[in-house]
Amino acid sequence: FSIGSNDLTQLTYGVGRDNEKMIPLMNNYKYNTNSEAIRRSVSHLIKTAHERNRKVGICGQAPSDDPDFLRFLVREGIDSISLNFDTFARGRINTWRTEIIETKLTEENRTDTYLFLDKCDKLIEKIRIPRGKLRNMVRKQRKKVEPKLLKITDKFNDIFSEISNISYNFVKDLNQTENLAFRKIYDKYHNQLTTFEEEIPKLTKKIREFGIF
């Protein structure tokens, strides 16, 4: 069975997703794929198909754009997930994370882990655009680049890499150790992330002198 998440959403609710009257109401009334109605439908199909030795796959925007829905699909045991090209790498990472978290951790520790990884992802997104603007400015100035601009650009690059490594190594360590060691691993990486949470707001103020807000 192959599910098209966009079509499934429209057919379930009986209205087009691009309906201009629905767009402002969409999130308030959970008119999206990651809703209880859609989840029940998908879960029932996976369960029924697997009971009859059939496979289920899904494609569309939902698994590409919504990490929470992607986690749901992995937990339910879907057989294949097609991702949009522009979100393929992120989707692969989220799938890898979810498979380890759901297999290795207790329910309580899963919640803490997902919250921690969401925090990592949000910090990365917060600095992604200003980092890109700084890097473009450095490229345009070439050999005439200001030392101050180069220094703060390097700092943004370092933080971007460090947070990416924190989220990756956190999950990697969880996969290699017993569940009993969870709190020790969690505290280690949480303390590292806290340092960057405090540092990033200060850096974003500093780059205003370069016209980046």
Which features does this protein show?
single chain; 213 residues; mainly alpha; 2 domains; three-stranded parallel sheet; 3 strands
Please describe what this structure looks like.
- The chain is mainly alpha-helical and 213 residues long.
- It has 2 domains: 2-104, no CATH class; 107-210, no CATH class.
- The protein has 8 helices and 3 strands; from the N terminus they run βααβααβαααα.
- The protein has helices at residues 5-13, 36-51, 61-65, 67-76, 88-104, 107-141, 147-176, 182-206, and strands spanning 2-4, 57-59, 80-81.
- Helix 6 runs antiparallel to helix 7.
- One of its GO terms (molecular function) is pyruvate, water dikinase activity.
- InterPro entries: PEP_synth, PEP_util_C, Pyrv/PenolPyrv_kinase-like_dom, Pyrv_kinase-like_dom_sf.
- This is PEP-utilising enzyme C-terminal domain-containing protein.
- Belongs to the PEP-utilizing enzyme family.
Topology, please?
Elements: E1 2-4, H1 5-13, H2 36-51, E2 57-59, H3 61-65, H4 67-76, E3 80-81, H5 88-104, H6 107-141, H7 147-176, H8 182-206
Parallel strand pairs: 1-2, 2-3
Helix pairs in contact: 4-5, 6-7, 6-8, 7-8
Over all CA atoms, what is the radius of gyration? 21 Å
What's the N-to-C terminus distance? 47 Å
Number of helices: 8
Broad structural category: mainly alpha
Structure in a nutshell:
The protein has 213 residues and is mainly α.
